[in-house]
Amino acid sequence: MKTMVVKETNERIMPATGLAIVGAILDKLNFIKRFNQRPN
Fold it and tell me: Residue 24: which residues within 8 A CB-CB, separation 6 or more?
């Protein structure tokens, strides 16, 4: 299993980078599978 390291920085973070992080987190949470199984 890969680990994700989050560090504080003064560098400017581009929005696309943030989306990649959010996507990785949602993938770890099996979000799409759980979302598709929700009751209507």
Answer: 4
